[in-house]
Amino acid sequence: MPLEIAYRPFTLPTGALPPAAEENVRAGDVSRQRDDNPADDLADMANPAPLTPRPRDFAARIRRRDMVSVRRRLRTPSMLRQRLAGVATIGLFAMVLGPIGWGSPGGIDRAAAQAEAGPLQPFEQAGESFPGSAFYYVSPDDTGLIAPNAAEQAWAAHRDDEEVASAVEPAGPAARPIFARGSGEDQWRALQCLTAAIYYEAASEPDSGQRAVAQVVLNRVAHPAFPNTVCGVVYQGSERPGCQFSFACDGSLARRPMVAFWERARRVARDALAGYVYAPVGLATHYHTSAIHPYWADSLAFIGTIGAHRFYRWSGGAGRPAAFNAVYAGGEPIAAPHPRTWTPAPTDIADPVALARAYEDGRLAALQQQAAPVPTVTSAAFGQVPLPHATAPAYAPAIEQRGGDAVFRAGNRLPGAPPAGSHPAGSSPAGANLPGSNTIRPEYQNSGKWIAQPQG
Question: Do 275 and 375 touch, CB atoms closer than 8 A?
Fold first, then answer.
């Protein structure tokens, strides 16, 4: 049930409202009474009362043209002059910069120059580039690769020539070519390890940067200071943080490689294991990215920057061509990082400076040992040097009566033995003084002797 509230009417006393308000109230009462009468509404529609005009707002009563100041009227003609001055300035710049090549950027002159220079490299074309590829431009006429036969000839010509090695500083002569050896499993492991090193170290670099990394790995294989296998070099020290190649111990191997970049790195690794040598890095054995500067960099000979890496080689005897004399014969270990339980060798945790010092000490020790005089004993038989404690054995009294130890020495004739001239020409009387043996059958006792003296 709806709630109804009845309000009691009330009347304001006379004089409670101002006179104007009382007139409005009375007018409202009259209009309300007229609204109740329909005949009054029809009369109002037939004879409408004239409307009182309302005053316009302040903004509408002011003409818009009065808002334009005299100053703006005076500045209106100057806009044309400003536009003409701007056009003239642009034309003047074009006349000055046009002769120096600014007038046609990317136009006919640029296209003609590009046509003379040759086609674009694959990584400079649309869809084939990568961020920063412009910094790795490589001339297509000079790849730096040396064929296997030419590399072997060059290595044989100057591997022992110290003057040539010093004259081609800082890179040094081209390295010795390395060929894949061993069984099929060894060759597959070597290719897999070298591909991983190229991919994780220089996947986004041009061919020159990838070839340089591959050549450093093979240079270490040829040096006695490093492991003698490709996988051994790539995963050296991978059982601990701070390994030789950072990707082997920093978790990079957890990233799944991209197929296109992996196949590209595999082609570079296949060429390197086929004997192709990348000459620009020479005998480099170390490198680091351009973003860092390790403590050992100042102790090595700087070769140059290729791609995103700076390459170095040893400057002492460890960096000479004669030092790269290790023979690669395969025998590759498993193509994976070492387990954490791996016991590292002393060379696995040594820095480049310590390795060079150890190599130099070993080389000097070997030279001193070769230069040491060898004692000679004139009484030694067949040029052999007897030990200092070696003495003649004690014989039985009967042997001592016959001459003792002299009886069993070659060249001494026993009593009753035929003279030296009675032996056939070409036969040796040595051993003729030794006692006979009954264990040799008579028909074989003259085996190996001349049947008759050959006629000259």
Answer: no
The per-residue DSSP string of 10-26 comes to --PPTTSS-HHHHHHHH
Q: Look up tokens 């020495």; give the residue.
A: 409
Question: Residue 274, SS3?
Answer: strand
Rounded Cα distance between 265 and 211, Å, is: 9
Taking each continuous run of H as one helix and of E as one strand, the counts in the chain are: 13, 5
Residue 404 CB coordination number (10 Å)? 15
Report the distance separating Cα 369 and Cα 5, nearest Å.
Answer: 129
Please write the tens of the pLDDT for every residue from 215-238: 999 999 999 999 999 999 999 989
Residues contacting residue 188 through CB under 8 Å, at least 6 positions apart: none
State residue 304 phi and psi, 5-degree precision. Answer: 165, 175
pLDDT digits (tens, 9 = 90+) for 411-443: 555 555 555 444 444 444 444 555 554 567 777
Q: Is the peptide bond before 122 cis (omega within 30 degrees of 0)?
A: no
> Which residues neighbour 410 within 8 Å (Cβ) at sequence distance 6 or greater?
381, 430, 431, 433
Tokens of 33: 């009474």
pTM greater than the 0.90 cutoff: no
Q: Which two tokens stand for residue 343?
A: 């016991």
Give the H/E segment covering residue 306: strand 301-306
Half-sphere exposure of residue 382: CA atoms within 13 angstroms, side-chain side: 5
Q: What is the mean pLDDT of residues 291-316?
A: 91
> Distance between CA 278 and CA 214 in Å, rounded?
9
Is residue 313 within 8 Å of residue 286, measured between CB atoms?
Answer: yes
317 versus 444: the higher-pLDDT residue is 317
Range picked from 10-19, 111-120, 313-322 for highest mean pLDDT: 313-322
**Six-digit token string for 141:** 């006429």
Alpha-carbon span 293 to 446, nearest angstrom: 79
Spatial distance between the Cα atoms of 335 and 343, rounded to a whole number of angstroms: 17
